[in-house]
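Following up on my earlier message about KG4. Here are the inputs again, as you asked, copied directly from the submission form:
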Amino acid sequence: MTTVLAIETSCDETAVAVVKNRQVCSSIINSQISIHRQYGGVVPEVASRQHLEIVNQAIALALDSAQIDWDTIDGVAATCAPGLVGALLVGLSAAKTLAIVQQKPFLGVHHLEGHIYANYLSEPSLEPPFLSLLVSGGHTSLIYVKDCGVYETLGETRDDAAGEAFDKVARLLHLGYPGGPAIDKLAQTGNPQAFNLPEGKVSKPGGGYHPYDSSFSGLKTAVLRLVQHLEKDSGALPVPDVAASFQETVARSLTKRAIACALDYGLSTIAVGGGVAANSTLRKHLQAAAAERKVRVLFPPLKFCTDNAAMIGCAAADHLNRGHTSPLTLGVESRLALKDVMHLYETKD
Ligand code: KG4
Ligand code: ZN
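Thanks, got it. Here's what our run produced:
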C-alpha cells in the first residue's frame, strides 16, 4: 500500500488528505466560500493569503485524524496545475518543504487528473479504459481515460465552463456565489419546462455540429435576455422556473454529448467529476440515459465532486506506484493540458 500526504490549494479550498492507494485515511477541506461570497466570486490574492494562513494547521489535522506518522508516508503531493498561480504556490511550496524535511518523494498533480481519480475513491474496482465527464468551474471536458497519465480529450467547451455558466446565471438571478448549489436548490421548486432555452451547439468547419463539444455562453445570454424581458413585461421574475429551465438545458446538453461519446468510442463506463457532478438534474438525466443505453455511470460522493485533496492523493499514489516522481524544481502553471500530464514526472527505470 502506498501512502501519500496530498495538498490541494488550486482555488478556494484549502484541502489536505492522507490516502493509501484508493483508500482515504483523512480528508480535511477548508472552504473559503464565506470569505469570497462578499465579492461575488473568488479573489485570487485573498485566496492565496487565506491558504497561507491555514495550510499548516490543515496538514497537522490531516495527519492527526489519519493517526499516521511520517514513517508510514511514502510521498508528498500537491496540485501544481491548472489553477490560480498564487494559490497553487502555497500548496506546492508546503509539499516540497515537507518532502525535503522528511526525505520523501515529491509529486506535482494535475488538478483535472485528480477529479478523474475521485471516482476511484468510491469505486476502487474501476479500471481504464473509461470516459470521464469533467464538469467544474473552469472545465467541461469529455476525456478518454486510457491509463494512468494517458488521456485524450474528445470534447470540451468552446467558451464558458458548465460551472462558470451556473455561477454567471446565479449572479443574474441575484443568488450569490457559488451559483451551482444555489440554482440546484431553487430549481427543485421550479418548472424545468417553463422556458425553452437554446442548447449551445458548436459548428464544424465542413457543416453540421461537433457531437461532443459544448458552448454555454449563448445560453447565458439567452437567460439574460429572458430575465430582462420578464422584468420589463411582468415586473416579477419567476426565479425558480428560470433556474430550473436553465439547469434542465445544461443537464440535457451534457447528457447527450457524454452518451454519444461513450457509445461512439465503445466505452461502457462514464465516470463524472468536478463540482457540477453534484448537480441533481445532471445526475438524474445521465443516470436515466445511461441505463437506457446499457452504459454504467459513476458519480463520486458529493464531498469528492468539489475540490478536495483525497483525489489528488489518489492520483499521486498511482503515479508513485509506477515510479513517477517530480523534480523539486517543478513550478506551478495556470494552464496545462491534460495530455501533457506526464511532463510533471521523471520516471525511474
Ligand atoms: O470542481 P470545483 O469544486 O472547482 C473547480 O475546479 O472549478 O467546481 C466548482 C464549480 C462552481 O462553478 C460551482 O458553482 C459548481 O462547481 N457546482 C455546482 C453544484 N455544486 C457546485 N453546479 C451545479 N450544481 C451543483 N449542485
Ligand atoms: Zn476542481
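One observation from looking it over: The chain has a mean pLDDT of 95. Hope that helps, and feel free to reply on this thread.
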